[in-house]
Fold this sequence. Notes:
The complex is a heterodimer.
Chain A: H1 3-17, H2 21-58, H3 74-84, H4 95-112, H5 130-138, H6 140-151, H7 155-186, H8 191-196, H9 207-210, H10 212-225, H11 250-275, H12 288-312, H13 318-345, H14 350-377
Helix pairs in contact in A: 1-2, 2-11, 2-12, 4-5, 4-6, 4-11, 6-7, 7-10, 7-13, 10-11, 10-13, 11-12, 13-14
Chain B: H1 2-23, H2 27-47, H3 51-75, H4 91-111, H5 125-134, H6 138-159
Helix pairs in contact in B: 1-2, 2-3
Amino acid sequence: xxxxxxxxxxxxxxxxxxxxxxxxxxxxxxxxxxxxxxxxxxxxxxxxxxxxxxxxxxxxxxxxxxxxxxxxxxxxxxxxxxxxxxxxxxxxxxxxxxxxxxxxxxxxxxxxxxxxxxxxxxxxxxxxxxxxxxxxxxxxxxxxxxxxxxxxxxxxxxxxxxxxxxxxxxxxxxxxxxxxxxxxxxxxxxxxxxxxxxxxxxxxxxxxxxxxxxxxxxxxxxxxxxxxxxxxxxxxxxxxxxxxxxxxxxxxxxxxxxxxxxxxxxxxxxxxxxxxxxxxxxxxxxxxxxxxxxxxxxxxxxxxxxxxxxxxxxxxxxxxxxxxxxxxxxxxxxxxxxxxxxxxxxxxxxxxxxxxxxxxxxxxxxxxxxxxxxxxxxxxxxxxxxxxxxxxxxx
Amino acid sequence: xxxxxxxxxxxxxxxxxxxxxxxxxxxxxxxxxxxxxxxxxxxxxxxxxxxxxxxxxxxxxxxxxxxxxxxxxxxxxxxxxxxxxxxxxxxxxxxxxxxxxxxxxxxxxxxxxxxxxxxxxxxxxxxxxxxxxxxxxxxxxxxxxxxxxxxxxxxxxxxxxxx
Lengths: 395, 163
């Protein structure tokens, strides 16, 4: 089954009926958008169950197991519960902004689905600035959270908004640097072209083998961008009273929850596209439908790792988190960027270039880890060098 | 046809948001309306097949500048919930100046012979922009980046703690 041909035959059918070309295109676009929207929302419901099951296994629990086989219907029951709960708006809240914030939080993630290549050329919008698009709409999330924090007219919500925005803005830099290095490798910002460039050699062409340090940097920063443990400071439920979304209840809260899961899925999908060959796999070039299968399998493995990390690691302190970004990830990313740019310009044969890139990646990774290790060893000496050292009350 | 309808919708949206920015009584609302204006302009860029400009518009204006404006409003004392009037004694001077400026712009738009290109934007526009930045226009590009670096260092110097 060729998905692309299916779409083209549909367009031809509409044109044969006698609808003008412009309107056919419009209908086609709207249809594509609705399909992507449906996929995204169904996916979110499944992801919630998937993550809860994984967290259950990792923490030696059962996870959801009451509603339906293996608890599969649990998210539907939860959604029904959230729909029937009372929807409370604080009296002082700024109503329009308050209601707009959850909409934007979900909308900006669903917009990201448009550029993700599910198979060769099976992509909502095959645009040449795909990476920039990801960065642009990814940045809207912080706007939604600021709006939510401000519109609630609640000090704690506002503080939570500040916390999450400073986190997202900081970790956007390592994510952007990692994306930029992959763009350098491929010479294109089109996500489908980037995926196409990683075929061959039975998966050895994946950029993760050539740029392991870049992938690790992307993964760690993506954990923070997705607000997941060990960087889930905005809703550190055991320490503070949630974050920017404290005043939200019922379905509006569910929208933030939805955005959270979809965000992680999109981050995994981008990781797969940039580093794990996207839809590449045996016979994927001949049969695009297989590409979709490979893509989803890879993304779910990636999502599993995200959930695994979340269920395993304890949380960082906020000053540790911010200094880790600015003092470790950003310098590491800049060093990697410089090294990759220079190596690619040397004009060596491709095998030597790839080997050199791999060696440089490993060297930078080892140096970073060594520096971090030294810092941890000397921690008693560095105690008062913290970024946001908490002040003790003077007696 | 579809393009024209889209243009009218987007232009009307942008203008409405612009009007909201000017008349909103709450500074935070004005900032949000401004985000809407930036969005409308990005959409217009997409209609013109200038994808790179559209994305740069969203990254720079919404991702950075609008967030910065919102932060500035939130961190200024007493700006948070206050309803501030959008008018003061000088509003008619400002209005007059704006009408004159609008007249100037309209006159320019009518008089200026715009070169109309029939060809659509090249597929490798973004590559051309990139090689332009580090090729033909490398000096202005580098000067701009040094300027930004100086601003960055200056901001850090101003904000750092003095012991």
